[in-house]
């Protein structure tokens, strides 16, 4: 068992990250009963920043090099500030099915960016696996829905692009910084930019009940601080970026299960069919990537 974990560290970290990110969907829906999307984003990453600063102080991680501060502001702007703005704005115009399918292209965009920027290659079976997973996403999200074409699609494509860009930056930054350092500095950078939402957030924080605080603490610590540390660690250990980002396709399946447990959202037939296709594609990609 220990040998298996040792040989698949990047995949273990990646799956752990996806599990926590998947939990954020139902928990966020619960939290949005008390906060606006912008305020929720700011409070969530403010909580994550406080958590990471405390841990960073105990671990004595120090400060980033002065010349790298713009880099972390850039990655924070991509992975946290711009992503939240683009995603929330796009969600106003799109159905949840449309939003999910567009965000699902982030791993493909990451693989393409890695191919051009990092010279990482994906074999033909890897691309077949990615296509299979994309088809699984289609079954999972569009089975009972409809694809509405409007300006929201442009916003959601922007969200997928900045998320893919964040993946690339973290893989590069981890060459000179630990996963914890890189994640901490990026989240702090994103929180600084998100602070423009502070004026509308303060009244909501002051009037929030205790249950809302529990939800915020969970979102700030686990799907944010812990998950992004694991994600950066997975990217730094992976032989190729797509080996890790491929796990993002499993998020809708896990979110559906957690939604059923936490808020009573029962999965449809699409969940079972789409989930089977997604897991089949994931298995194919992992098997062929070893070769």
What does this protein look like?
The chain is an all-alpha fold and 291 residues long. The chain has one domain. The chain is 79% helix and 0% strand. Helix 3 crosses helix 10 (198-206), helix 5 (96-103) runs antiparallel to helix 7 and helix 6 (106-117) packs across helix 8 (151-173). The protein is globular. The relative contact order is 0.21. The model has no long low-confidence stretch (mean pLDDT 80).
Topology:
Elements (H helix, E strand, L loop, with lengths): L1 H6 L1 H23 L5 H23 L9 H25 L2 H8 L2 H12 L6 H19 L8 H23 L5 H16 L3 H9 L3 H28 L4 H4 L5 H13 L5 H22 L1
What tags apply to this protein structure?
single chain, 291 residues, mainly alpha, 14 helices, 0% strand
Briefly say what this structure is:
The protein is built from 14 helices and no strands. It has helices at residues 2-7, 9-31, 37-59, 69-93, 96-103, 106-117, 124-142, 151-173, 179-194, 198-206, 210-237, 242-245, 251-263, 269-290.
Give a quick account of the main beta sheet: strands, pairing sense, barrel closure. none
Poorly predicted ranges: none
**Order of helices and strands, N to C?**
HHHHHHHHHHHHHH
Give the averaged pLDDT, no decimals: 80
**DSSP, total strands:** 0
Helix content: over 70%
Morphology call? globular
Number of helices: 14
Sheet-strand content, in percent, reads under 5%
Distance between the termini: 22 Å
Output the radius of gyration.
Answer: 18 Å
Question: How many domains?
Answer: 1
Give the class from helix and strand content and strand pairing: mainly alpha
């Amino acid at each position: 068992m220990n040998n298996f974990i040792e040989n698949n560290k990047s995949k273990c970290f990646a799956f752990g990250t996806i599990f926590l990110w998947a939990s954020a969907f139902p928990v966020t829906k619960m939290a949005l009963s008390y906060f606006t999307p912008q305020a929720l984003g700011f409070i969530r990453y403010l909580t994550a920043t406080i958590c990471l600063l405390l841990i960073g102080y105990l671990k004595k991680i120090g400060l980033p090099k002065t010349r790298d501060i713009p880099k972390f502001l850039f990655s924070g702007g991509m992975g946290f500030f711009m992503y939240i703005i683009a995603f929330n704005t796009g969600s106003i115009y799109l159905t949840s099915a449309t939003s999910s399918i567009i965000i699902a292209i982030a791993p493909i965009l990451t693989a393409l960016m890695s191919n051009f920027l990092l010279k990482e290659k994906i074999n033909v079976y890897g691309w077949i696996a990615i296509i299979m997973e994309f088809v699984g996403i289609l079954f999972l999200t569009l089975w009972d829905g409809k694809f509405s074409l409007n300006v929201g699609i442009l916003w959601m494509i922007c969200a997928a692009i900045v998320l893919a860009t964040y993946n690339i930056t973290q893989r590069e930054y981890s060459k000179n910084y630990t996963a914890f350092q890189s994640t901490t500095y990026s989240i702090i950078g994103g929180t600084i930019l998100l602070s423009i939402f502070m004026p509308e957030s303060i009244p909501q924080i002051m009037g929030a009940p205790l249950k809302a605080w529990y939800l915020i603490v969970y979102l700030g610590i686990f799907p944010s601080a812990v998950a992004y540390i694991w994600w950066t660690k997975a990217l730094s250990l992976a032989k190729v970026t797509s080996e890790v980002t491929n796990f993002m396709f499993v998020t809708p399946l896990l979110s559906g299960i957690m939604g059923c447990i936490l808020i009573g959202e029962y999965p449809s037939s699409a969940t079972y069919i789409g989930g089977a296709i997604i897991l089949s594609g994931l298995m194919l990609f992992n098997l062929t990537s070893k070769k």
